[in-house]
Amino acid sequence: MSTLITLEGLDGSGKSTVCESLQSALPEVTFTREPTDSWYGDLVTESMHDDSADSLAELFLFTADHAAHLNRVIRPSLASGTAVISDRYADSRFAYQAAALADSRIDAPLEYIQSIHEPFSRRPDATVYLDIDPETGVTRAGATNKFERVQYLERVATQYERVIAAEPTRFYRVDASQSIADVKKRVKTIVGTMLGDEVSTES
Ligand code: TYD
């Protein structure tokens, strides 16, 4: 059985740097990300950079990208026995879009978003959550798009906490305010344990 591990966290949590370092240490693993590098992902990126984008439409764009990602990358890799590590995955929707839809006509956005994933998605075997406070995240990331505002990220963090509280055994929380070297080390240990003998974690 092959393993699916996801990395989650607020903008500025150091997630992308950690993923790059994991990738060079684990050449046998399929590394991927959401939004994906595909035309579905391009549409998502276009929407993210439009401050007037409709939040509900954006949820469906992200979810469409996820559906294609599962069928084109994740399921084929897992089926061939290759472990997969994804930089962001469904939990990003559960946190970011639940926060974005908080004042919309959708009641209970988190539960709604989870319900539209449930019929087709694949739950990660483990999720590493890089825990950073929103202010530090925004300072580190720089506000390059509308998702990177502190108030919004505070609401996103609250949604992540709700998801983690509901599934505590899936999540591995890492203090991302530590030095990046310490964060990388901690994440490598967690991933190495999860992958066990699926890959060599020596490098
Ligand atoms: P990106 O530049 O890839 O940031 P990062 O390196 O932090 O992953 O932009 C991704 C942005 O999209 C980020 O702000 C989180 C947001 N996002 C969502 O709102 N919903 C989603 O489902 C995903 C995958 C990302």
UniProtKB/TrEMBL annotation:
SUPFAM superfamilies: P-loop containing nucleoside triphosphate hydrolases. ATP binds at residues 9-16. It is an enzyme of class 2 (transferase). One of its GO terms (molecular function) is ATP binding. InterPro entries: P-loop_NTPase, Thymidylate_kin-like_dom, Thymidylate_kinase. Residues 7-186 form the Thymidylate kinase-like domain. GO terms for biological process: dTDP biosynthetic process; dTTP biosynthetic process; dUDP biosynthetic process. It catalyses: dTMP + ATP = dTDP + ADP. CDD domains: TMPK (cd01672). GO terms for cellular component: cytoplasm. Its EC number is 2.7.4.9. Keywords: ATP-binding, Kinase, Nucleotide biosynthesis, Nucleotide-binding, Transferase. PANTHER family: THYMIDYLATE KINASE, UMP-CMP KINASE 2, MITOCHONDRIAL. Belongs to the thymidylate kinase family. HAMAP family: Thymidylate_kinase. This is Probable thymidylate kinase. It comes from Haloquadratum walsbyi (strain DSM 16790 / HBSQ001).
